[in-house]
What we know:
Strand content: under 5%
Number of domains: 1
Order of helices and strands: HHHHHH
Largest sheet: none
Distance between the termini: 7 Å
Helix content: over 70%
Number of strands: 0
Structural class: mainly alpha
Shape: elongated
Radius of gyration: 16 Å
Amino acid sequence: MTLSIWVGVFGVLAGVLVSWRFRDRLRKPERYWLVGLAATAPAWIIALTALLDGLSGDPPDKTLRAFLAASSAGGLLGVIATEFCVRWLKAQTTKAPALLYWFLGTVALVPSWGLILWRVS
């Protein structure tokens, strides 16, 4: 699980660097959100595959299957909810800072990722 945490930390730092370095190319709020989402997605996928590894036992843990479905659904709901917030902020008359859009993308998978880390540990 430490691999997932290190990949998450590296992803967030790389996301900050990319957002700062390519700010003239990113321009649209959706792109900042996407960079933030890409920062934590690899760490979430690594943790999810570690959870899948627990299903290979003899007999398979049925509660683990339910937990896997719930954490996947939580990740999907996080992405949908933060994307809705990006669209809502974009429609407002006042312009939100790009850091807010990046932050929304970054936190989209964090609750589900944390839940997986808690379960696997």
